[in-house]
Write a structure and sequence with these properties.
The protein contains seven helices and seven strands; from the N terminus they run ααβαββααββαββα. With 233 residues, it is α+β, with helices and mostly antiparallel strands. Strands 1, 2, 3, 4, 5, 6 and 7 form a seven-stranded antiparallel β-sheet that branches. It is globular. The N and C termini lie far apart (84 Å). One of its GO terms (biological process) is pyruvate biosynthetic process.
Amino acid sequence: MSAKRVRFDAAGGGWRAAPRPGFTADQKDWLTRGGSLTAHLRTLGKVAVRVTREAIDQAWRDEAAALGIAARAPVWVREVVLEVDGVPFVAAHSIAPLAASHGVWQAMRRLRTRPLAELLYSDSSVARSALVSARLTQRDPLAVLAAREIAGPAPHALCARRSVFERHGEPLMVTECMLPALWAHLEARARRGGRRAATSTHHAHASHARESAGPLDHLASRAHGAHAPNHDS
């Protein structure tokens, strides 16, 4: 991917480059990670892409503003869910101007269940804007889509990030909404890691104590055997 400057800016409205102070450490980390989100998810388990919609539609208001296109201009929409070991972790919504989806970005129409990352990160002519993030309320269109993938009641707000990829002057905007299952998985993994670290430390201390005190214990035992009073009675 090229490092050249992109003329499109994904920021605006509630979208900002610096994650909000109220986000957790995990949220700040995942909302600002560069590179392929699919690749990052693969460090957690087996990733599968489930396509939920591909169609001609209109951009959402903030998307149209960010891309500098007319509010009712047609765009090609691709919506997918990224699952890790069968559990939905991310709901993604990507758009490109309709003409570009037949031209520069026509490959996005042929991806099927392959991740968009295969298209975006294998082409040196593609440049990417800065990542921006936002807290989506339940009324946000992407939050509505994400809620369908959440087991149980949806939270009042969801974390999302977005950026614009540019190829030969044509934009493709990718918005990724992280689902509660991702944060729960990361929290559980951190707890397991903490327990493993504590267990390893305990075993190491116990082993060290045995190795250090073993010969002394043996000498003490013989000394008690020779001189200690008998308490059997």
